[in-house]
Structure formats: structure tokens, C-alpha cells
Specification:
Order of helices and strands: HEHEEEEEHEEEHEH
Strand order of the largest sheet: 2-3-5-6-10-9-8-7
Distance between the termini: 73 Å
Helix content: 25-40%
Largest sheet: 8 strands, antiparallel
Structural class: alpha+beta
Number of helices: 5
Strand content: 35-45%
């Protein structure tokens, strides 16, 4: 019996050491961070220019080290503008996680605009520093394979991004 306890304890400590314990909580970033430093500990990272602009980089990260208020997305898009963190976005895979994040966002950001449609409720928050778009779906949508979505961007980057989207979407 004693040997089983020792082996079990050893297994627990081995597993704890194998997985990063200190995750960076994106809900606390200041948007002055170096995105490459934030992504440390993640090995599968894809990098691409946005709008053919060398100052605007999107990193697709198979995530192991980043969280948002306790939620650990499996994939995150990290956005960089002129070498500094400009935003991030990720899918929310479960109704329980979506509800936790919705509560956090509604509690932290008081002047939220709400737009509802038949399939999605979009919560938007904007101030001089950040823009948050949180897309909430219902239980049936999750059952059908859809996901919630959170996007957080620096306001300056958001404004440039939206202007470029308009330019690139013109026929």
C-alpha cells in the first residue's frame, strides 16, 4: 500500500512538472507587451502579415501558456502592431466557459452595448484603450458545433484595422 502511494505521488509531481503552471492571464495585459514574449512556451505558432502590412502581424498559436480569466483556449490569435501586443481573439468551446467569461466581462466593463439577433448576442465595449467584442451563442448552437468568440484589441489598432477592412472589402 505504501509503494502505491509513493508511485501515485511521484506521478502527480511528474505531471505537474510537465505542464506549465504559470499561465499568462490575457485579461490583465497592458497592451505594451512584446507578443513574442507572451507566446513563450508555445511551439506551434504560425505567423502572417495582415493586409500585406509588415507592421501588422497575426500569430496563430496552439496555446499552452495563455489564459483569459481562468479559461485556457486551445487556439489564440495574437495580434501585433509595430512589435507590440495589439490584440487577441479566441473561440469559446463550451457553454459553461462562455457563461463564466460573459459574467466576468459584464462585471468588469459596465458600459457595454448589446446587439441581439436570433443566433447570437454581441457585447461590445469601447474606451480610449481597448475594444472588446464578445459573441455569445445559446445552448443549441453549441450542440450544433458553433462556438462563442472573444476579440480584444487596442483602440488605435482597432481603428486602423477597421479602416483597412473597408478598403480591402471594396470591389
Amino acid at each position: 500500500m505504501g509503494l502505491q502511494k509513493i508511485l501515485f505521488t511521484l506521478l502527480i509531481f511528474t505531471n505537474m512538472a510537465a505542464y506549465p503552471q504559470n499561465k499568462t492571464d490575457l485579461s490583465n495585459v497592458k497592451f505594451n507587451e512584446d507578443p513574442k514574449v507572451l507566446m513563450n512556451g508555445n511551439s506551434d505558432i504560425r505567423e502572417g502579415k495582415m493586409f500585406d502590412n509588415a507592421d501588422m502581424i497575426s500569430y496563430g498559436v496552439q496555446n499552452k501558456t495563455l489564459s483569459f480569466n481562468g479559461y485556457i483556449p486551445d487556439h489564440i490569435e495574437i495580434l501585433s502592431y509595430k512589435g507590440t501586443l495589439a490584440g487577441y481573439a479566441f473561440k469559446i468551446r463550451t457553454l459553461t466557459d462562455q457563461n463564466k467569461l460573459a459574467t466576468f466581462i459584464k462585471d468588469k466593463y459596465k458600459n457595454i452595448t448589446i446587439r441581439k439577433s436570433r443566433l447570437v448576442t454581441v457585447y461590445t465595449y469601447k474606451d480610449n484603450a481597448i475594444v472588446i467584442d464578445f459573441q455569445e451563442i445559446d445552448k443549441e448552437q453549441f450542440k450544433n458545433g458553433a462556438t462563442g468568440y472573444l476579440s480584444v484589441k487596442r483602440t488605435d489598432f482597432y481603428n486602423i484595422y477597421e479602416e483597412l477592412m473597408k478598403q480591402y472589402s471594396k470591389p
